[in-house]
Task: structure prediction
Amino acid sequence: MPRTAAPLLTSPIPRVADSDRRRTSASVVLRSVLEHGPVARSTIARLTGLSPASVTDYCARFSELGLIRESAVLRRSKGVGRPHLPVDLDDTRFVVGGVHVAVPYTTVALLDLRGRVVARGEFKHEGTDPARVLARAADGLTALLAGVPGSRALGVGFAAGGWVDRDSGTVVEHPLLGWREVPVRELLGARTGLPVHVDGHARALVNAERLFGRARGSGSVLHLFAGNVVDAAFTTHDEVHHGPRSQAGAIAHLPVPGGTEPCDCGRVGCLLVELSERTLCRRAREAGVVDGVNPMHVVGAAAAGDPVAVRLLRERSRRVGRAVGLLLDVLNPERVVVTEIGAMHREDCLTALREEVGADRAATVSPISFPDSVLAVAGGSVALDVLYRDPLALPGSAGRVT
Result:
C-alpha cells in the first residue's frame, strides 16, 4: 500500500516554558490558599499577580481534584456587590505518608495537607538491614491508613540523615546505619504501591518550615539539624539547594571553634562529634546523669533540676551556636532554623545558642516549628513539597476518596 503523509499538527507543541509557567502559577495559587484560606479568588489574584480568570480556572481544577473546597462562610467585600464565597484547603480527603529513618528507630506518620500529623508510630530497629527496616515502615504505614478510613494517601515521603539522593530515590551513604546505595524509592514503592519521594531530613525540614512553619515567607532560610547526624540545608526564593547528586549540606566534618572531641576522620572538633546527641549522652553517662542513650532523658533530668544536665545542654547549645555563626558568615540567610533538643525545649539553651551567634544576628535564629513532631513532619513534608510544587500533576482519579 502506498504510504500516506502524516497529518499536519493543527495546534502548536507546548513549549517547556509554558509548562513551567503553568506549574509555577498552579503552585502559587495553591500556596495562597494554604497561607490565607479561607480566601476570596479576587484576593488570590491580587496576591499572586495572576488574572482573575486564571485564578478561577486553577481553583476549579483544584476543586475537581479534591484539594480545595468553597468555604461555608460568606465574606463581604469592602465595596458594593455580592459577598465573596472564599475557598479553602480541603484537608479532610487526603493524607501523605511519612517515613523517617533515624539511627535508633524509624518514625512513620500520616500528615494532612496542612502538614499536621494525623497519626504516627515508632519502631525501634531490630538490626539495620535496609530491606527489613523499610518493610516494617511500609507495614506501619498500612496500619496507620487503616485507622483513618475515608482518607486517601497521595504518596509517601521518606527522609533520613546522611547522603540522600533525591533524584534517584537512593540513600547513597549513611555511615551510622551502615547503608550504602539503598534504593529506597524502589523498595518502599513496591511494598506500598504508592508514589515515593525521597530526600535528606535537613532539606525536608527546611521545606516544612517554608510551607507550614515560622519561616514561611522568608526570602532565604538556613536549617541546621543537630541530632545523631549533623547536616544542613539552605533555601533561597523557595528553592532548596541540592547540588550534584544531592550532596549539598554535608557539613559533618567542618570544625567547631574550640572543639576537643576526636573524630573517626582523624581530626578533632568536627561538627559531627561535637554536636552529636551520642556525644551528649556519653557525657551525661560519664557524669552520672543518665544511664542510657536517649537525649530526651537528659532534657528530663534538666527539667527536674539536675544542674549537671542543665550545664551539658547549655554547653551543647553554645557549640551549636558557634556552628550557626560559621554558616551565617558564609551564607548570610534571612532566617536560621535550628533543630536541636536544647533550643527546642529550653529557653535558656536557646538564649545560650543566640549569644554565641551574636547580638546583631540573634533575632534571625529560631528553633524548629515542630518540636513535638520533628521526625514525623520530616518524612511527610518530602511528599507535601512535591504536591505544592506541582499540584496539577496529581492524577484526576485521586479526587475520589475510597
Summary: The two ends are 50 Å apart (CA to CA). The chain has 13 helices and 15 strands. The first strand starts at residue 68 and ends at 70. The CA atoms of residues 97 and 110 lie 5 Å apart.
